[in-house]
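Section: Multi-chain targets

For targets with more than one molecule, the full set of components is provided together so that the structure can be written out for the assembly as a whole rather than chain by chain. Components appear in the order listed by the source. The example entry contains two components.
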Amino acid sequence: MLSAFNDAFSLLETLDANLLGIVLLSLQVSLTALLVGCLLGMPLGAFIAIQNFPGRQGLIVVLNSLMGVPTVIVGVVIYLLLSRSGPLGDLNWLFTPKGMILAQSVLTTPLIAALTRQIIEDGWRIHGETMSALRLPIVAKLKWLVWDCRFSLSIALLAGFARAISEVGAVMIVGGNIDRVTRTMTTAIALETSKGDLALALALGLVLLGVVLLANLMTSIIKSFAERRYG
Amino acid sequence: MDKDLMIDLNNIVIHRDERDILSISAQIPRQGITAVIGPNGSGKTTLLKLLHGAIEADSGTYKPGSTDLESALVLHHTPLIKASVRTNMAIVKDSLGKYKITEDDIDQALASVGLTHLKNQSALKLSAGERQRLSLARAKCQRPKMILLDEPTANLDPSTTEQVEAIIQQMANDGCGVIFTSHHLGQVQALADRIVFLNEGVCLESRNTRDFFEQPQTEQAKKFIARELGWK
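Its structure, encoded as tokens over all components, is:
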């Protein structure tokens, strides 16, 4: 076990090309899925937070449920959609990073939307009457609520990123874990562990842990800066 | 008084939680300073929100409507967003008003309430008085013909109260009609030209200030004045 750790650190020290490629692909896929999740999930969550419409409660229940949907189920659904006979088969995204981004976006969007809805709804309780008194149109209300809650919303971003970077089920099914094409940190860890190559699995695990810790650290620094600056 | 210079409330009823929280027929001047007074829960804030168009009446009419009134409403509790004073001012640039609000308008409004030196400071670090001045500056930016103020000096110390009263008086002198609610009858006597007295959602008196305090016409008004002035 000790030698596996030594080999893992050695891979990290030498910036092994294989390891680096896997890490970069993981970050590329997960950060893009996070971006998509933000672009879709934040406006959706903010809209649900401040608007009353028929079926709103039902939509909230669906979003909250989707936060915890198993990643393999998302993987299977996206697989069926992207497969040659599926409705999105013409895109040829199956077993490509684009397909993996789509699958992870399906995971990040409802999570970010649900957390955004909760955070913005709390903000709306505080600012709603004032914003209405100022006669702000709905887009402006959303803009200023998101701005007011921006530091709390960083938690939603962090959760979305953690959901994407750490999942294995969806990218394994949709990406196929193809060497140097669709192999991410999590799928590589699963494969290398089953093969007995613990060094690479451990090295990737350490990088994954470091990435998540770094994201947490940055969120924490931003929040404490904000509290000092804006009270 | 000229009918065009009055807000004419005709059989307005606002019903909430199985009771009428406002049931009013009255005329309120669009110029000068009018104080809306009455016990807690008498419908003062509801009346301001109605005039501003923030809530609708269940029945009855009032003229001019909230759109023609071109009002700005400053609520009793005005939370500010986590940003600088200037950013909090910039919010009004997005409001659905008749005028396009510029950066110069914001600078002038901040200067008029004496907050220029704090414009880059976090709004959440302002004192209660500074927050109220910021809210008034925001309202001024909207260039309203009428400003509606809900207890503008509640919880302020005497010195800050004087500053806010001076701003209100200045706005009235500049031709902006002012309607404000208050529990501070000394302030009402000093500032208001006219009184609207509400009790349990009903307008019992609408008269000039001196007449109201010297010869209140209803028992409720007499008791209210005695209680409030005695308590003070």
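Strands of chain B lie at 6-16, 19-29, 33-37, 59-63, 71-74, 146-150, 177-181, 194-199, 202-208.
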